[in-house]
Structure formats: structure tokens, C-alpha cells
Amino acid sequence: MNNILNNAMRKQAKLLNKISLNHSIMLSLEVLKDSDIFDIYKKIENGENLTKKDGYALIKSSDIISLGIIADKIRERSCGDEVTFVLNRHINYTNICTSRCKFCAFYKDKENGYTLSVEEILKKVDESIKLGITELHIVGALNPDIEFEYYEEMLKRIKERYPQIQIKAFSAVEIDFFSKIYNMSYREVLERLKDAGLDFLPGGGAEILDDELRKELCPNKASSKAWLKVMETAHKLGIKTNATMLYGHIEKPEHRIDHIFKIIELQKKTKGFLAFIPLSFHPKNTELEDVVKYEVGGVEDLKVIAVSRILLDRYIKNIRAYWVMLGKKLTQVALHYGANDIDGTVIEENVFHSAGAKERFMPMDELIRLIKEAGRIPVQRTTDYKIIRRFS
Question: What is the C-alpha to C-alpha distance for residues 203 and 211, in angstroms, rounded to an integer?
Fold first, then answer.
């Protein structure tokens, strides 16, 4: 009797779920029909490629609900309900920098800055291994007083001690800087670092890939062409990378779309980008604090993540909601706006915290809870998105 009753209850539950799902889909479609971006949605459903003009329409749309519906539907088709994270440690080896970007609160001059010794870096790695990390994220400022052999020794000694650790290090801007001051080509720099133990490049330094803006924001840093060339060279050497976009400062909505399409064009060519990471600008303690007086709001953050998913989905599967910048609560919402990754434990990140980011290290159980509360399935991954463990 109990078996009969249980079977009947299961059938009823399946029927209710089906009715609920169909009702939800109908409601979504009704919302979209009245949206100013419904024609773009139809193009997506018909399998058509989106254009820059479509991107401009998406980023300027005020219909945040429809953007979320479209991005979430695309995310579900590409990634299902799994949300990935990595156990990682950040190491910022120096903050002495010649670039002095207006949006940066991290850099210092030689008198007030620091450079970690290789021994100090190894001590940080030793401490983090106990927490089960699988990835090191190593980036720093543009310090002309460091010898190139320092970077090689750093990588070699980490790999000798912990060969299982994946090292994601040195932004494209750092690689461009190394090339200039050590008189080597991008290829030579990357080959030597790869031989020493480099596995991946992070996506930092992209900011907005528009040279007129870069002249205003970071005139002493790699041009957009140089950033793209470093990434292309890395991809050709088998070094996978991420790509970022820093938004919410002095750029216009069109700049964001142009930036995304430059990423798309390179990805078509190399297929070397693992993830796209939109980063909202924090003006605190920067030279732009009086110009950009307010941080980007949550609605704009969600819009950028949704548009990133809609435009990039065919080319880059993983769209990251970086919880350090968004905060935990908005990150959960972002998982319903196209994001399928939330980065990781992020032990000791200093660059964004210097500019006012408030969230700190998040242990694995907290990452899992955050993802589950959002109605998603937590999955621990490697740097290159291989699955280590699923948490049902």
C-alpha cells in the first residue's frame, strides 16, 4: 500500500513540476514579447549571430528583467545548473609601479612600496596548501627594479615544492612590461616563464580595450593592441588565459560592447580564453574618486553580466560573477543573470581591496552554501575548468 501511495505522490509531483515549468516558460515569453529587445531574442532562438548593433541595444536597454530571462535561458542550455569554483590563493608580489593608473589604489612608489622575496612567497604558499588550494593567482605591479630571474626562480621553486599546483600568473600588461625592460619578444618572455612553471595567464589589465580611453586612464600601460597580442601569443604557445573588462568609470556603454567584440574576434582565432570576467570599478582611494563619485549599482552589474552571457556564449562558455567585487548577495542573483562561475576562495587579494572592495576570503563551505542557496549545484574545478568534485 505504501509503495502504491509513494508512486502516486511521485507522479503527482512530476506533473506539478511540469505544469509549473510550462507556466514559467509562458510567463517568460509573455514578458519578452513586450520587450525592446524581443527581436534580438528571436535572432538568438533562430541561431543567428549577434552584431555590435545588437550589443549596443542590449547594453542600453532598461529592461533588466528580459535581459535576465534571456541570459538565464542561454546559461541553462550551455552549462546546466552547475556553478563552478576553485580553491585559490592570491599573491601580489610587489606594489611598486611605474604605470600609476588613475583607476588603481594598489600602486606605491619605491619609498612606500614592497617587493616580496621568493622565500616570503613560498611561505605564503606553504600556509595555503593546508587549506587544499589547487591554484595560485600571482600578479603584481610594474616594478623596474626586479630582475627577470626573480620570476623564473619564483615559479621553479613553487613547482619543485608543489608540482600539483596550477600557477596562473602575470597579466598581459606585466608580460608587455617584461618584454620592454628585458628586451625580449612576447614569445621569448612567455616561453621562459612557461619553462619555469607558468601554466595560465589571468585576464587582468584589459580594462577597456580602447586606446583613447587608455590614454586617459593608464597612458603608461600596454595598449589594447599589445594586450590582445600578448594573449594571442600565449594562446599559440598553449597557455590558456582569462579575459576581463573593467567597467563603471569613464567609459560609455558602447565601449563595453566594442571591448567584448574584440575578445570575440581573438577567441574565434585562437580559442584560448577560458572565462570572461566583468569587473565593476571601485573608485575609493583612486585618482578618479572625485570624478566617479558613485560605485556602479547592482542593476548595472547584473546587466553587464547578462549582456556578457548573451554576446559571448557561443565563444566563451564561462562567465564569472566575481564575488569579491559584487558581494555575496548580488553574486547569488548574478547566477540567475547568466553567470556560471564565482571564482573561488580568493585568499589574500589586495588589488581590489585597496580600492574599497569589502568582501574577503571565503572558505569552501561558504562557497558551497552560497551556490546552493541560489538554487544551483556547486562544483569544485581546476583552473582550466576540469571537474574535481560535485556537491549535490
Answer: 18
Judge if 159 and 256 occupy the same domain: yes
**Domain CATH for 270:** 3.20.20.70
Contact in structure between 337 and 366 (CB atoms under 8 Å) = no
Which of 219, 190, 193, 224 minimizes the C-alpha distance to 207? 224
Which residues are 332's β-sheet partners?
A: none
Q: C-alpha grid cell for residue 276? A: 570572461
pTM of the model: 0.88
Strand 82-86 versus strand 318-319 pairing type? unpaired
Which parts of the chain have pLDDT scores under 70? 1-31, 99-111, 283-294, 348-360
Is the sign of the CA dihedral 169, 225, 60, 101 positive or negative? positive
Residue 110 is predicted with a pLDDT of 66
Q: Could you list the residue range(s) of the whole structural domain that residue 310 is in?
A: 82-390
CB atoms within 10 A of CB 297: 12
Question: Which residues have a Cβ under 8 Å from the Cβ of 115 and sit 6 or more positions away?
Answer: 93, 94, 96, 143, 145, 146
What sign does the CA torsion over 323, 198, 169, 211 have?
negative
Say if residue 22 is in the same domain as residue 96.
no
Is 75 part of any domain?
Answer: no
Beta-ladder partners of 341? 84, 320
- Pairing mode, if any, of strands 377-381 and 341-344? unpaired
Q: How many independent structural domains does the chain possess? A: 2
Half-sphere exposure of 306 (CA within 13 A, CB side): 28
Inter-CA distances, 283 with 245, 276, 298, 348, Å: 15, 22, 16, 20
Q: Strand, helix or coil at 26?
A: helix
